[in-house]
Every structure is written in C-alpha cells, then in structure tokens.
Design brief:
With about 550 residues, this protein is α+β, with helices and mostly antiparallel strands. The protein folds into three domains: about 100 residues, ATPase, nucleotide binding domain (Nucleotidyltransferase, domain 5); about 120 residues, 2-Layer Sandwich (Nucleotidyltransferase, domain 5), CATH 3.30.420; about 260 residues, ATPase, nucleotide binding domain (Nucleotidyltransferase, domain 5), CATH 3.30.420. It is built from 16 helices and 27 strands. An eight-stranded mixed beta sheet has the order 20-21-22-19-18-25-26-27, sandwiched between helices. Strands 3-2-1-6-17-16 form a six-stranded mixed beta sheet, with helices on both faces. It has a three-stranded antiparallel beta sheet with strand order 4-5-8.
Length: about 550
C-alpha cells in the first residue's frame, strides 16, 4: 500500500505515568509519538489520586504534537482510539465535569467497605463463601479485599463523600472518561467495566449488568454507563475537540479497551494459548483462552478480551520495572536535603551494561520485588521486597542483576499457574499431548522492559522458554489501540494482526544457566513461605 493510500489512527495510550499519543497506521506502524508526565497525588491512609484535568491537558498537548509532527495529512487520519489505565474511578456530573480527582487503581481506601461487605459466619481467606461463589459464577471473580477495584472506590465515595455520590451522574473508568471528553457520550465496554465486578460474563457475546450483584452492593445502577462493544463507534469527535487538535470534523472515535487487553492485541499474540509478558512499572502474563474459568487460589480468571466474544486470563503483578525506578530514584539518585541535586542519567542503559557482565545467579543473591505487596499468584498486600543472602564480597553490580532476576523469578511463579490454567483445554485440543509436554513453548514480550536485550535473555533462561521480542515493544498499547480502532472502522481483521507485529529478536534459553536458576527459584518460593508471617506482623 502506498503512503498516499494509507490511513491512520490517533492512538492514545493513557497510562498512570501520563499519556502517550501516537499516529499509527491501520496496519500497526507507529509513525510518531509523544509523552507527557502526569502527577500522582499520594497521601497516608491509602489515597492515590490523579487530576483528570491533568490527563486531558496532556492528551491534547501530545496529540497536537504528533498530528503536527507526523507529516500525515489530516485527511488520512480516519479515527481515534484510546487505551487507558484500568481499575480507576472518575465521578462526573450531567455535563461531564469531574466532581473530584480520579481515584486510581493503587488507592486502597475502600478496603474497609469491602471487608464489611464480605463479613459473614462462613468465610474463606476473609471472603464470604456464599457471596464470593455467587460472584465467581457470574463474573469469574469478585471485589478484592485490597480496595483497589472501582466498586470499592464507589463505596468509599458513597460513605465518605455522600454529597459527591449524590451529584454523580456517572462513575466512569479512566478509559471511558477520556472517551466522554472526546465525544460527549458515556459508555463502557465489557472490558473496561469488568473490574467493577457487576457484569455477567457467562455469555461472552452478551455481557450485561447483573441486577443481583448491583443490588447486593447497594449502589445506584443508573450511575453506571451503558455497555458497548470495544469495536463500536462511540461517535464523532466533538467539534471543539476536532478543531483544537486540527483534525477534520466527523473523525470517528472507537470505544477501545483498557491497557492490559489493548496490549494483548498489540503484542500480536492473539490466538488461544499464545502468551505474552508485559514489563512496565508493573507486569502481567496473559493469553487468550476459549472458556470462562477461575483460579481463586492464585487470583486469576478468564475476563473479557478486547476482541469481542473472546476471553483472556486476567492477572497482574504489582512491581516489575518499578523496582529499577525505585533503585534509581530512592537509592542511587535520591535528592536528599543534604546533597546537591544532580542530573539523572539514562540509568536503564547503564543497568543493562552492568548486568551483562555479572554471572547468572548474582552470586546467589535473591531480590523479591514485592515493594507494595502482590496480587498474583498470591494476593498478599503485606509482603515486601528485599535482598536475601547479601554479603560483603558483593557490589552494586550483583544487586542490580539480582533485581532483573528477581522480577523474572516472580513471573516464573505466575507462569507455573498460567500453564496449569490452560493445560486441560490445550491437551483436549491436541490429543497427542501429555502432561510432560511443554504447554506454552514461547512468549512474546512487550513494554519498556522488553527493550532490554539482557533482560529478555534472563527471562528466557529463568522461564526456560523462547522469548520473542516484539519490535518497538514500548508502543504495544498504542499499537493495540490502533488495531482495535482499525477493526472497528473496517480497515483490518483480527486474524491479520499477527502478521502486522514484527519480531525483532528471539532469545533462547542458555542450558548452562538451567541449574543455577532452578535452584534459586526454589529458594525464591521458600522465601515467601518463610517470610509471609513476619511481613504480616510488620505491615498489617
């Protein structure tokens, strides 16, 4: 297809750190992108908020940048699709104005109301047995005791800020709030609304609100948005937004999906059991699956995919690349009052060079990346990170490599249960398979951490699987949003996406490292078993 025939999507990747806007072809080629950081407001007591005005200003700024710099004719920009951080809450009035800061996915203030909701005579791990079974039957999961789900945010607002609750016309996910700013219309997708845990997903082709679940939570169902498909056209851009961005009036906005499901599409691993790892501040490991299923013990379940009529495995681990940011900002380059401020270099490239020269296993030093607790494969908000087996002969080089490896051990911990989750289905579809066969032989890798070749090799060695580095991995979310928009507008089909995702490198396991990593992973699991009780005493 010649450049004059190509069409483009304005893809907005609205993450916790701030939005990235990109001009992406309908075939997934990222031409131009720009990022604007957005502040995080953290206070004692579990409050973590962001100002939606900051989001919107940054989205307008970065979108105008890429439209102006891409040298693409605005006549060829045919759609807008946004993917946002998930599990947040924006309370808006009838005019679409937000009534307070957004409560985002890290906020835990609503936990006491979830705890109260689950109180009963028969409880399992703090959950009411009768209630959680009712929830799992319909949604695959249920409101987390952590208080990080939007339903906990809504209950907190209802109880702590009743005047805001009463004024609220709709409670919107960040994804759906940005869409409302773009179009003036309020809607959620089966994907964006899912973590409210009030939709019945048993028929994945007809996801709808469950009146029983909403009634049980005692919230007003009228305050929830209508549900549309992720590939539905929500509407045209509002004229004033089109004019400010410099786009043609009438450009269509596709509903889209939040970050995890969009990245799943953008990773190119769109067929059942084709898995990918995302390494950003946090991490996840997921794949499409054919049926609804819940692994309550390991806190993961089938959830709606951005591809209508499909499921993916829902899970997330709290800290991955965030451990390197912690090392940079809190230890190596912390702006202590007694020290002069100094420019912070691009430490991630320096880290890579250091790690390449440290032997596998970091001299038996083990790092646990549980800096704010963990979600999967265990839900434990009191466990914490640490360095184990630190000794005088070690240097910061060992510590840095141990952080890379510790994140890989954490993902291997999750990967064990992902393979178990899909094993029966895959064996049924492949009768020649046995339980000894490898269930998932290779994984695509995306996100900022996937730019590190040495980290990709560590993942291959620790997981003992081939790791396929997707080209331009940091843009997987934006590329996924563009793919969803392209399908919605009729420029692409789902089965064409895999060929649109180029693989830049394939990392194969180094057999020389097998013994050391198997040994250290076993000790990694032992650390959790031994330390979970002391952590609970220290942090509960």
């Amino acid at each position: 297809m010649s450049n004059s025939q190509r069409k483009y999507i304005l893809a907005i990747d609205h993450g916790t750190g701030g939005p990235k806007s990109a001009i992406v072809s309908t075939q997934g080629e990222v031409l131009e992108w720009a990022f604007q950081e957005v502040s995080l407001h953290v206070e004692k007591g579990g409050a973590v908020e962001q100002d939606p005005d900051d989001w919107w200003k940054a989205i307008l700024k970065t979108s105008k940048q890429v439209i102006d710099n891409s040298r693409v004719s605005v006549d060829d920009i045919v759609g807008v699709c946004n993917t946002s951080q998930w599990s947040g809450t924006v309370a808006v009035d009838k005019d679409g104005n937000h009534l307070m800061n957004s409560i985002i996915w890290m906020d835990t203030r609503g936990s006491k109301y979830i705890e109260k909701f689950y109180k009963s005579l028969i409880q399992v791990s703090g959950y009411s047995l009768s209630k959680i079974l009712k929830w799992i039957k319909r949604t695959g999961g249920g409101p987390s005791q952590s208080g990080k789900d939007p339903i906990a945010h809504i209950l907190w607002i209802k109880n702590e800020l009743p005047e805001i609750y009463n004024k609220t016309f709709k409670f919107l996910e960040p994804q759906d709030f940005i869409n409302a700013k773009l179009t003036g219309k309020y809607a959620a997708s089966p994907v964006s609304i899912h973590l409210h845990w009030v939709t019945d997903i048993r028929d994945i082709n007809n996801v709808k609100y469950s009146k029983k679940l909403i009634k049980g939570l005692k919230i007003d169902p009228q305050k929830l948005p209508e549900i549309k498909s992720s590939i539905d056209i929500l509407g045209p851009l509002k004229n004033n937004v089109a004019d400010e961005l410099g786009l043609n009036r009438g450009v269509k906005v596709v509903v889209g999906a939040p970050d995890v499901p969009s990245a799943t599409v953008g990773s190119g691993a769109v067929n059942n059991y084709e898995a990918h790892i995302y390494i950003g501040t946090s991490d996840w490991l997921t794949c499409h699956v054919p049926h609804k299923k819940t692994d309550l013990t390991h806190n993961m379940a089938s959830v709606p995919s951005a591809i209508p009529g499909r499921y993916i495995i829902g899970n997330e681990q709290e800290i991955a690349g965030g451990a390197l940011s912690f090392l940079r900002d809190n230890i190596l380059y912390h702006k202590d009052e007694l020290l002069k401020e100094e420019a912070v270099p691009d430490v991630y490239k320096i880290f890579d060079r250091i790690v390449e020269n440290v032997p596998a296993g970091s001299n038996n030093l083990i790092f646990t990346p549980w800096l704010i607790g963990e979600r999967t494969p265990i839900e434990d908000h009191t466990i914490r990170g640490g360095l184990y087996n630190l000794s005088l002969e070690m240097t910061r080089e060992h510590i840095i490599r141990a952080i890379f490896e510790g994140v890989a051990y954490n993902i291997r911990w999750l990967f064990m249960y992902i393979e178990k989750f899909v094993q029966k289905w895959k064996m049924k579809e492949n009768p020649s398979m046995t339980k000894q066969d490898i269930i998932i032989p290779e994984l695509n890798i995306i996100g900022g951490g996937a730019q590190s070749n040495i980290w990709c090799q560590i993942f291959a060695d620790v997981l003992n699987r081939n790791i396929k580095q997707v080209s331009n991995p940091i843009q997987a979310n934006a590329r996924g949003a563009a793919f969803i928009g392209s399908v919605g507008l009729g420029y692409l089909k789902w089965d064409e996406i895999q060929r649109c995702c180029e693989i830049s490198n394939i990392f194969t396991p180094n057999p020389e490292n097998r013994e050391v990593y198997d040994k250290l992973f076993k000790e990694y699991l032992n650390i959790y078993k031994i330390m979970r009780k002391p952590f609970k005493r220290l942090n509960e």
